[in-house]
Amino acid sequence: MLICVTGMPGAGKSEVAMRIAKRLNAKLLNMGDFVRSEALRRGFPVDRENLLRLANELREEMGPDAVAKLVLASIAEGSLYVIDGVRNLEEVNAFKSKANVILIAVHASPKERFRRLLSRGREDDPKNYQEFLERDLKELKLGLGNVIAMADLIVVNQGRDIESVVEEALRMIKEVSKDVHANSDV
User: Fold this and answer.
1) Residue 173 in contact with residue 80, Cβ under 8 Å?
2) 68, 112, 144, 161: which could join 139 in a potential S-S bond, CB 3.0 to 4.6 Å?
3) What angle do CA 53, 133, 164 make, to 5 degrees?
4) How many CA atoms lie within 13 A of 27 on its CB side?
5) Which residues contact residue 98 at a Cβ distance below 8 angstroms, ignoring those fewer than 6 apart?
6) Dihedrals φ, ψ of 92, to 5°?
7) Helix (H, G, I), strand (E, B) or coil at 82
8) Please, which residues have CB within 8 angstroms of residue 185's CB and are 6 or more apart in sequence?
9) Which SS3 state, helix, strand or coil, does residue 75 take?
């Protein structure tokens, strides 16, 4: 089974994915790590611009599900994985073609996400609200909004501690996984 985690930048999807993987004793795979590995393999500098460019090149070369294909090549059948960073429906469908999938969207308001991005201080994070909005629009153009809309579960990661968010997600995963196993063609 694959538990795919999605959300807008700053929603907390990586933190939620990491904690879910730990609690379920699942292997955590970050889709961005596969793009970074491919950049290194091709001898590209690993910075946000090059990674975005490479991800787009991969999608042109291999289709919109290119990054999912890279991830799938490293997955062992029958194991439990948490996949962090699904960005388009083609990726979701690629995963569904190989395994049962539960898709979780992590949500936080734009103001909260902007605050988080400012406080984490990564070099590639937006420096002002306009940059933040532009980044959001780029993500939405890639199809991230469609993935969020099609999520099996949505957890709100705002106004409460992360552990309660993870507990809620785990309860929901347990419930949905009953349906997934009962309807293995889902």
Assistant:
1) no
2) 144
3) 100
4) 14
5) 2, 72, 75, 77
6) -60, -45
7) strand
8) none
9) coil
Q: Which two tokens stand for residue 177?
A: 């996984």
Q: Which value, in Å, is the radius of gyration of the alpha carbons in the chain?
A: 16
Q: Which domains does the chain have, with CATH numbers?
A: 2-27+78-182 (3.40.50.300)
Return the closest-CA partner of residue 155 out of 170, 142, 143, 145: 170
Of 134, 6, 133, 21, the C-alpha closest to 67 is 6
- Ordered mean pLDDT values, 10 residues apiece, the chain (186 residues): 97 98 97 93 87 90 96 93 96 96 98 95 86 94 95 97 97 86 51
User: Against a cut of 0.85, is the pTM above it?
Assistant: yes
Give the Å distances, CA to CA, from 167 to 107, 184, 186.
15, 25, 24
Determine the pLDDT at residue 111.
Answer: 97
- pLDDT at residue number 157: 98
